[in-house]
Amino acid sequence: MDNLAVMVILGGLLMKLGVQLGIDPIQLGPIIVINFAVGMETPPLGYSLFVGSAISGLSIEEITKGMLPFFCVDAGIGIQRTGNSTNDLHQPPKAFSAVR
User: Fold this and answer.
1) Residue, of 21 and 83, whose pLDDT is higher
2) Which residues are within 8 A (CB) of 81 and not within 5 positions of it... i.e. 6 or more apart?
3) HEC letters along 15-58
4) Could you give phi then psi for residue 22, rounded to 5 degrees?
5) Where are the domains of the chain?
6) For the whole prediction, is pTM greater than 0.90?
7) In this predicted structure, what is the pLDDT of residue 57?
8) Across 45-60, average pLDDT
């Protein structure tokens, strides 16, 4: 199923579950999107690999080697977002909030 359709179908359920677990809804949105992006990149449902293979004519293995750095960055950001979900919503310092 397409990621957009899954997000529409599961969005309300995941939001309610996340709020019950104490995750801020503003942080839960990026967590959901990044995890679905990682799912697009990895088999068995990683249709980005299959589309890239069909367009370029390269094998899945060759494309996987090329996209491995991007996957590592996405997975690292996903882990960081999930682990720091409560620490990122701090107030900016007073020096930056006084705009005249």
Assistant:
1) 21
2) 27, 30, 31, 34
3) HHHHHHCCCCHHHHHHHHHHHHHHHHHCCCCCHHHHHHHHHHCC
4) 90, 15
5) 3-84
6) no
7) 92
8) 86
